[in-house]
Specification:
The complex is a heterodimer of chains A (265) and B (278).
Chain A: H1 18-21, H2 24-40, H3 44-61, H4 65-70, H5 76-89, E1 94-98, E2 101-104, H6 105-131, H7 134-145, H8 155-185, H9 195-201, H10 203-226, H11 245-264
Antiparallel strand pairs in A: 1-2
Chain B: E1 6-15, E2 23-33, E3 38-43, H1 49-55, E4 64-69, E5 72-73, H2 80-86, E6 87-90, H3 103-114, H4 118-131, H5 147-159, E7 165-169, H6 177-193, E8 197-202, E9 213-218, E10 221-226, H7 228-233, H8 235-240, H9 247-257, H10 269-276
Parallel strand pairs in B: 3-8, 3-9, 6-7, 7-8
Antiparallel strand pairs in B: 1-2, 1-4, 4-5, 9-10
The chains are: A mainly alpha (265), B alpha/beta (278).
Chain lengths: 265, 278
Amino acid sequence: MALFKSITIGQYIPGNSTIHRLDPRTKIIGTVLLIVLLFMVDTFWGYALAALAIAAIVHLSEIPPRLVLRGLRPLFVILLLTVSLHLFMTEGDPIFRFWIVEVTWQGLSRGIMMGVRLALLVMGTSLLTLTTSPINLTDGIEGLLKPGKRIGIPAHELAMMMTIALRFIPTLLEEAEKIMKAQMARGADFQGGGLLQRAKSLIPLLVPLFVNAFRRADELAIAMEARGYRGGEGRTKFKELHFGRRDAIALALAFGFVAVVGLLF
Amino acid sequence: MAEPLIRFEGVHFKYNPGTEREWAALQDISLDIYPGEFVAVLGHNGSGKSTLAKHCNGLLVPSSGRVLVAGLDTKDDAEIWQIRQTVGMVFQNPDNQLVATTVEEDVAFGPENLGIPSKEIQARVDEALRAVGMEAYRLHSPHQLSGGQKQRVAIAGMISMRPRCIVLDEPTAMLDPEGRREVMSTIHRLNKTEKITIVHITHHMDEVINADRVVIMVDGKIALHGTPKEVFSQVDLLRRLHLDVPQVTALSYRLRSRGHGLPEGIITVNEMVNCLCP
């Protein structure tokens, strides 16, 4: 059954490029900076420079541009909606009029700009997940949140939750497939019927899946305790993150670029 | 004899005490496990063997009586982490005890919890993976492994904590014959070469033949206790307890009851061959 085969966790493309080898914390901060930049700029040149920067990063990451562009596909409807809303709803100098809708020059330029902003946002952020493995990403998030521990941010706990989720996604998918087959063997129908019927037919799948997930959680907790787990206190890390010279340069470049482009354009 | 590594002194344990569902899982268990031993605990479902296992490292503590691990009482909360480092535990379901997304990260989980510096963790992970023969899979994710391989990774996750004893709670129950063989030969090797004390809980008769000692649990009590030879000589008693005996033992029992002069306590095919064709 190919139903679950198509689901991949994250979209990490293994590689050894400059971008791949950056500290995950650098990449997360860089992504945040890019988002800030895209909300600061408001001119044609601003967007052009941001697009150029993203293109440069894609080139450095050695990821086929086609894959980066593919990330836009699920967004097509939202993109179309954004552009057309701006196109039809902005007042200004009319290009043409049709019945009650009026398309204006201002609307056209705003629509295009909003569309480009959205597209660049998605492409820029997908670069993070394309070049960083889920484990690395988790470590990076934990590292960045650690200073927030004093104000009550549970950095270690969040990272542990993410790790366990990543660990168990394939296991639970496998189990879902097994349960589905078992229920189909007893005459369950997961395909036919309307939307409501199909939602209902998922109940015999979801109930055993949840019951088992809770049992697993229970056993995992005991196993973790047996292995000396007692929260983040006094814990060391097997693979420590390494913030090197390359990361310092990358961050300096990112900050500089965002400051100049964001403030000037 | 040396001081016991794990000592049960008149241990009773009740699940859900004081409620309608109260159930005495262990009744008056006294048992010593010595350093370097390979002890097999055998029993049916519900005989209390898993409950016994969970007492070895303080996951459960006795309702009355006490359990000492290397002289430390498992009821003492201050010593519990020392106890868990001394006695490692491997569980039945290989899937539900692996925490991390890669094999090496998972083996590192225990040492991380102990606060070992990261350089030493690397050495321990290498050593542990070598000990179970899984060094080629260090970057695999758990769901890519077979059941036997996952169970070996779980054992490596224990070894990296350098325990003196590993308790295995039905580690082979969910494995195919190939996986069972892998796990059994791994734990026997660890017992022989690394001198790690093994407490192996199982309901497979054939997995206890090579143990130093066998403990048979029935209804929360120790019904029989001795070397495999001593235990399997008592075919009548085992039958009454609805427990199997190894095939050759059953065969020699039947031959003996037909009047053939075979000795008691034949538990391997080789012994049988030597007795029949001296």
